[in-house]
Amino acid sequence: MAVGGLLVFEDPIDHAALLERLEGRLHLVPRYRQRLRTPAPGLNPAWVDDTAFDLGWHVRRATVGKDGLPEFVGHEMSRRLDRTRPLWELTVVDGEVPAVLVKMHHALVDGMAAIGIGMVLLDPTPEPMELPEPESEWEPRRYDRRRHLAKLAISPVGTARRLMTPRDPRDLRKATELLTQLAKTRPAAPMTPLNRSLGPNRRFAMMRAPLDRIKAHGKVNDVLLALVSEMLAAYSHEDVVALVPVSVRKPGEEGGNRISTVLVDLPVSEDDFEERLATISAAMTELKESEAVRAGAILAGA
């Protein structure tokens, strides 16, 4: 469940300068100084301050040749994050292609929240942004296991209800009925070489495409789905169904995951790219305005 991205730069990145920037801005994302702690076997872990937090441990350096960069990223994304520390890492890549590899656990962020994390590293102009200073120097709060267990013991049933039940129980029933009906009407996924269990190994590839050219065709996500459809044609000429995440994050919401999912038909059998893109764009527009998004969000929340 590690997610991430490779930031490619025109000029080399100074490791010490990056550490200094993070040190001055990490208070904007307090979860990045927290790790998971399980209060007792069988109970869900909680986020607690890492009393041994070491920023330098999370920001590494590597020297990689231009041709070896994709392989390096693949290997780094194959390695499991250390669960005893905050679940993120940055790697400053020195070499022909200066880059920073960002790696974090999905429990920490979803796609929209990850964009917010980018603001900790990057400024939109050559002049640094004016950001609020921390009110005081960070001091980790020690985890009180007894207090946590006592709090869980007070009302375990009430806690479970709040986690599992929407405000109106009818919403969950409607969502379940709708998604059950959708599942019954979906075609079966065709078998391809991609239909196999996931292992730990990841591969990474790079290509360059001008963003303005992509936007000229329509929404970026729609163009990417059309490109995925075109690539899938190498494995099968049958149309397939994709599970696509949709953000339901409200203005002002921070951290965590705020997503729903929708089922989208990918027109793999269509040969013309523009026709393929038009079909996907129409389907995504219709789905985003449908009850399917709300239903998926309710179940994802539960």
Rough outline: globular
Number of helices: 11
Q: State the secondary-structure class.
A: alpha+beta
Looking at how many chains there are and whether they match, the oligomeric state comes to single chain
Order of helices and strands: EHEEHEHEEHHHHHHEEHH
Strands, count: 8
Which sequence of strands runs across the widest sheet? 1-6-5-4
Short description:
With 302 residues, the protein is α+β, with helices and mostly antiparallel strands. The protein contains 11 helices and 8 strands. Helix 3 links the parallel strand 4 and strand 5.
Question: What would you say this structure looks like, in words?
Answer:
- The chain is α+β, with helices and mostly antiparallel strands.
- It is 39% helix and 17% strand.
- The protein is built from eleven helices and eight strands.
- The strands form three sheets. Strands 1-6-5-4 form a four-stranded mixed sheet.
- Helix 7 packs across helix 11.
- 15% of the residues are buried.
Keywords:
single chain, 302 residues, four-stranded mixed beta sheet, globular, alpha+beta
